[in-house]
Amino acid sequence: MSEKIQEEIVLVITSVDGSEREVIVTHANDSLLLQLSAGETYRFLRRIDSKLLPLEQVIGLRTGDDLSLQFTEDESMVLQDYFTLCAEGECVVEMALESNAEGDLSYFSLPADSVGLELGDGSQLMLAHGDMLTLMELAQGQSALTNAIQQAQSNQLALGDVLAEAEAEVATEEAAASVSSSFLSFATVAAVGGVVISGVGSGSGVGAGLTGTDYSIVVGLGPVLSDNTELTIELYRADGTLLGTSSAFNPATGAFEYTDATGYSGTIIARLVDASSGVDYRDEATGASLDAPDNLLAIANVDGSGNVSISLTPLTHMAATQAGVSATSGAVSFTQPLTEAATNAANTNVGTAFGVDDILAAPDFTLDASGTSQTPDAYGIALALISAQEEMLGQTTEQVMATLISQMTGDTFSNVAKASLTLAAEGISGVPDLKLITRTQLDISALKVLEAYSSPSIALPALTLEDYTAASVTGVTTTNLAAVNANVLAAATGSADSVAKVQTLITTANSAVAKIEAYNNGDGTTPAALTVADYTAAGVTGVTATNLAVVNASVLAAATGGADTTAEVQTLVTAVNALAKIEAYNNGDGTTPAALTVADYTAAGVTGVTATNLAAVNANVLAAATGDADTTAEVQTLVTAANSAVTKIEAYNNGDGTAPAALTVADYTAAGVTGVTATNLAAVNASVLAAATGGADTTAEVQTLVTAANAER
To answer: SS in 3 state form for 5-19?
Structure first.
């Protein structure tokens, strides 16, 4: 029976008199506490049976004046008062971290005046030595510590180079003969933030000979704004564990940068985290600065070394979704194992569907971060089309992506999806012939776009004259475009798959507009009253069974030639609906429905309503008898009354208190002024009378006077 090998962490304490004693760092639930004493030297090493060896790994944290050393998952020690006693040179703490071919140990000490990396809980990372994967295991569950180790490692000095430099320095010292050749102070180590980073071994560890992986990650929703401070990139391994995070944005490259020293190879998942709702990027469709969506994903395969470039875009997110990857706050999940083959296939599929060679490459956008147009590549065009869809359809990035994913089979979009993206090109300016480029990039003909628009399974931007012209269809003009679109949209599947069939739909559209015009020219009986379907066929929206009779009356009452285009009829319908809204306010209580806006009056064909007199006009509409605000003419009369009410108050302000006569509560109410009662009327009148000329000629000014008068009472 073989004898069990005994391995332990040993602390050798040398007293002032030169005597030595050992402390074994035992496996315990809690860290051992050791009060340091002046004049003593403390050396940590590893022992297997009787053989002395360097430590394989150790993490050092500063908490207050104490140094906590973690050697294994359950072997640790706290050196109390290290950063006071040792800073004053009263004690020395050394750790065996290297050995030569003969087995001689090299000891290192951590300068007590070092400054480490803050962990956010008052502690600092001071030392990290060992295989990076092992260090990550020691730090598991402590995200701040994990990130600090990775951050410090990104600027590490390889251990072999440190030794060579230190030996050269020691050789030039006059006291070299008295210095042990196996000793090296950490004071000679150049490291980021004062943190000492060293490594052992090779492969996936951190040390001499391991270069790690440098990530450059572009967020490709549009150019990222250089002053954004909210975006963070999280990187996950294929098993869903966190590899690291980065908020280090480089405005010069437009990329987030991260260095992974663990040598991780395999599939990586990149996740965009947006900390708040501030603006982050320049939208390609509108040129506006917008907030980025959270949880945008990308998947890629890495070999554990060199430089890796990854773009995080709607396209990469769609690829990740196709591969079964999703994300929630602080985690990624999978519907199936994420393999390198599945990753490559998903990225290739989405790239092929959009006509983009490499969706992980950085795109050339249609504009730069300042909003200036520039020449895009196929990737930039694809992203711009998604942005345009959001704007034109009133959808979010997430909604557009979900729709496109639902329309994809393997590496191919449905024609409806291709048509949707093609039509979205109308919303992008600054790129000549973009629709032609898009049709070529997505491999869809102009006629197929028209066909896809007929009875589509998803919402689509509207067809334009260019779409019909490109399909060799004639007879479509700005006048009948809405009517033609309505007929193509309503056509049964297969009814718009040839030029001849589309031409038939154009004829139908023209007939629908002519039918409305004929009703306008009739007597209300002949021709027969129009139906909701008649308006729909003419491309007119907003007509329902509820308002049909009123719309018909409006069309009938219009002047000859005032209802012979879709646009003219639409104006009549809009006015009818706007008047219905005004009438509803007249019938309300001033709170429900909500107060009317200037736009509401404009839509009803009412003129003379401005921000200045809006409150007065609303007050007059509200006070009017039921039925006295259901025509444009009636509402126009109320606008005149409102203006007269304000003028009356202004005249009193310019008078002498006798002529004109004193104002009444009703006068103020008619002007849209609130808060005037019989009780305070005299005080309000006095305030109006005392105001400077021109100080009571708007509802807002008079309201201020009322508020002041009430405050003085």
So the answer is: CCEEEEEEEECCCCC
